[in-house]
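Troubleshooting log. The previous run stalled partway through. Resubmitting the same two chains, unchanged.
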Amino acid sequence: MDISGLTIRQASDMLSSGACSAFALTTALLQRIADVDASIRAYASVDTAFALEQARAADDARAKGKSSPLLGVPIGVKDLLNVEGQPCTCSSKILKGYTAPYDATVIARLRDAGAVFVGRTNMDEFAMGSSTENSAYQVTRNPVDVDRVPGGSSGGSAAALAAGEAVATLGTDTGGSIRQPAAFCGCVGMKPTYGRVSRYGLTAFASSLDQIGPMTHTVEDAAILLQVMAGQDVMDSTSLSAAVPDYTQALQGDLRGMRLGLPKEYFVDGLDDEVRASILQAVETCRDLGAEIVDVSLPHTEYSIAVYYIIATAEASANLARFDGVRYGQRVTSGRDPVEMYGATREAGFGAEVKRRIILGTYVLSSGYYDAYYLRAQKVRRLILNDFEKAFASCDALLTPTTPTPAFRMGENTGDPLKMYLSDVFTATANLAGICALSVPSYETAAGLPVGLQILGPALGEEQILRVGHAFEQRRKVEA
Amino acid sequence: MAYETTIGLEVHVQLKTRTKMFCGCATGYGEAPNSLVCPVCLGYPGAMPVMNREAIRLTVVSGLMLGCEIARWSKFDRKSYFYPDMPKNYQISQYDKPLCLGGGVSIDLEDGSEKTIGLTRIHLEEDVGKNTHFGSSSGVDFNRAGHPLMEIVTEPDIASPHEAYAFLQTLKQILLYAGVSDCNLEEGNMRCDVNVSMRPVGSPELGTKAELKNLNTFKGVFHALEYEQQRQSALLARGECVVQETRRWDPERGETSSMRTKEDAHDYRYFPEPDLLPVVLDASQISVWGEDLPEAPRARRSRFAQEYDIPAYDAGVLSADRDVADFFEKAVSAGGSAKAVSNWIMTDVLRVLSETGRRVSDLPLTADALGGLTKLVEDGAVNMTGAKKIFSVLVEEGGTPSKVLDDLGLAQVSDTEALERMVDEAIAANPKSVADYRSGKAAAAQFLMGQVMRLSRGKANPPIVLEMLKQKLDQ
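Second attempt completed without errors. Output:
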């Protein structure tokens, strides 16, 4: 069975028609991983026995009359989402050997729907990075060009799809960590509205920015996966109570009657020429599909990276304080007192980028600096949201490049954290504003590198952006 | 130069909730270590807090009892510091928008006057775990971690160790009345940090303060403050300066010693807790919570003195404990005279409570039964000797006073024919006492009275017997 490129829809059809069993599908996927992952290294770990056990259970459930679009469908899970009994290293040495004692809410929902968790996908340590080069364990390569990075931090989840070793994966997005790797690897990645998907069980990087989202081969698959993941959760006070619409129902028709905005601040100097050309061509396609295209302005965009790195690091400095060697994870016992034990444990357990961000975050929250950094950043964050609210008052969605450049080469940005941070420049705004965003593959560069078209929607505007993404995706496939 | 003492208190009170502040774990004391824990209160990766609404209610009720302004909008913040008993290495607390602001506690001074100690604020936070040190290792019990903890902060209005002590006693009484905490000091339900400084009398500015930690009893607060007052006075008298620092009270040695100076002070790096929504309370919600507010202990004390016409001291004793005060009022309404019921409670009931360590609500003796017993005495159905016997039965086994009276055969004999026979018998058997009486020794009548009581096995109605004796002897 060739499972490379298999979508959730196709897998689901095969499973429900009896064309193959979940066991056979999972076996084929595990074989594919065994064949290609040595060169891609998208998976941090694969638990074959656990995967096959779930697949068998899915087949049993189907035999007893259960049906669900995800029943028996294998899913890869980013290594910072807790699955009971499975490792959850967050690609950090400090959580080496740690076994999650409970299921994240999204995991519990997917489990109930019969999904099969095949493995843990590699990532930047604690989701801090844009290339997956910050994993403490392994470097993941971009399957499109193995000398290039897959993006990050959900690089493993994106690379697994691009290498045909996943049907769908879960990622998390704090400043672009789903969309940027999706763009780099040529797959679909969605960051839902803040609060649309429960964060319970997502090892927090920046609590006010983090969202879990689907990473898939198609927009339709993203809708199918989001359908199961979304909804209020009593365990997450910030989850939204709004009813979950039928997302696949939104994937109909062309774009007639829709008004799409082009924010001029996303088409500035520093945007790669080929990326610009690709996105402008995508915009023409959308116009051709019936959308009205208008120019808009989001004037506070230029502050987004600064604001993002203040708020995200501040929250991270507190969120990561719990990794102290006292209750779980690695402990370095040298030292005469708890303070020395913490120091030794965290020194050995955290990588350079994580330490850099903890120090930055500690600094911006320090007495005497709080007002100048954190408080001011929160005010500017509000202005960034106001920009979007104004734009969405006259537009259904906005079209932008997902990233300023296609996938960069391995090692290209590792020596320059600031340059690395700038790869989030078009994505971090959606997290700061709490709105929803989708990256779908646009037209490739001459060298065949993927380019991501980012579709930004207002809070709870998932249906609109899925509709735009799906219509564009269908037309592009016809063209190709 | 003469100096005066300025004291401010931070009192931590564990709220009486069924579950913890941010998770569904049960609250409990004395359970096996780490048996009341879950990913949330252990700070596991990915776990998130969910607010316990009952803890909010109990804090608001406390605020209303203490005359605070209840914030319509308040929020939680993260307070960061590393300590092994702290699961997340940040505590979810409230920084600049606490649930309650202002308020005060009126205390009685030694000279009989009244003083109000102002409150700055009351905020809500989560408790931490407990470290235990063994020979070469340490253990942390996280059962307590996440227990809702209310912090009551006073203004620097307290002028002496005595006032601090009185404040704590009064505060405890109010919180017990409000039913928000068990206020059990042994179980750490109430813990106290103290700020103390000295300044020249009349100076508007506060002196340099020391913060005292490890104060787990009210007596400890009193003694630590006395010690600290002397230490700081001595420094100032020698012309030296008080250093701003945190000092630990050592109850064994009866002295404080430096823990850390201002330079080592924590920077807690507070910022709003992004995992929780702000607490928004509308006026109707606050008034619903305020509907069941009990009468405050001081108000009840004044009312007791007036309404029941009992001495101020008695009113104070009876109103000190809400259950006892309720018991008193119920017994009075069951038919006893207030003075008599008060006597029974102040002498017999409280003695039993202190001997047995029980609460009045745990006694087999009901308020109705005590009221009924008082009424039996007043109606002359039983004398005090018999009533004491009935009380002993009621307090051990419960039941109704009239039933116990019958069971014990203690009905007072007021039948004059039966009494007359006993009086005649006593007179006949004690000619010497009769003679003594008639020669002017009035005390001899008491002896004869005793003889009659003995003959009646304690059941004779004493006033009638005395009357009868006098009549016969004076003939």
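Takeaways: The first strand of chain A starts at residue 43 and ends at 46. Chain A has three domains: 8-250, 260-297+382-479, 306-371.
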